[in-house]
Amino acid sequence: QDAIDRKEKRSETFKTPHGLETDTPALKTEELGHRAPQWVRDNLVTMCMRCKEPFNAITRRRHHCRACGYVVCARCSDYKAELQYDGNRPNRVCQECFIFLTGHTVLEDREGKHKGILEKGAAEVSSRSLLCSSLQLLDKNGKGATRGWFVIPQDDPLVLYIYAAPQDVRAHASIPLLGYQVRDMPQSESRHLFQLAQSGQVFTFVADTEELKQRWMKAMARSAAGITHPEEEEEEDAGP
């Protein structure tokens, strides 16, 4: 009976939420990993389909689970599983699909560590940062902007942390900077614009001054190149 109950519970996990319109039915449980899912369209959901946290430009980005097709946040999709339909290559999947496909349990200390990264207080991180200041992050259509407090910590110099305010006790989001390209943009309506871009993902920032913009571009470019200490950059500039 316990086995039957667990199977029924798993089957319920992968059902399409009531009222959600999709072009094709959701995959059956036994099809997960064996057949490519129909992705749920981004505009059909406003929150993570696993943890129910709302999406927006600064706090949570949308990702698709490659096994079930759900729209989920970065935290709920920070897992890799081999999918048969993709030649058994590792793909990004949600936690539920990871457990189902691999049989592995998610360790509590791993979850705690992942959450703890974002739960560093802004004031504490800013006091030990390579660079921190207020910036604006434009939405995708470039019309709206959200102001936040942005930090690159000394002890985690390859990641950009985003807070809503400089005294918040928890970051809303983080962006791994490694591999991104930093792009300068022409001044627009007295706004000092620059971008982070990688594989079709683009973030557009607005700094309050040109000097601050240049400082951020330099710091982000250093992190994107994997340089964790200023002296490493000096050695590269000096050459052999």
From TrEMBL:
Gene Ontology molecular function terms on file: guanyl-nucleotide exchange factor activity; zinc ion binding
Signal peptide: none
Stretches assigned to coiled coil: none
Alphabetized Pfam families for the sequence: FYVE (PF01363), PH (PF00169)
Region (Disordered): 1-23
Gene3D superfamilies membership: Pleckstrin-homology domain (PH domain)/Phosphotyrosine-binding domain (PTB) (2.30.29.30), Zinc/RING finger domain, C3HC4 (zinc finger) (3.30.40.10)
Keywords: Cytoplasm, Cytoskeleton, Guanine-nucleotide releasing factor, Metal-binding, Phosphoprotein, Repeat, Zinc, Zinc-finger
Domain of life: Eukaryota
Limits of the PH domain: 128-225
Membrane spanning stretches: none
Name this polypeptide is given: FGD2 protein
Organism encoding this protein: Dicaeum eximium
Lineage: Eukaryota, Metazoa, Chordata, Craniata, Vertebrata
Gene for this chain: Fgd2_1
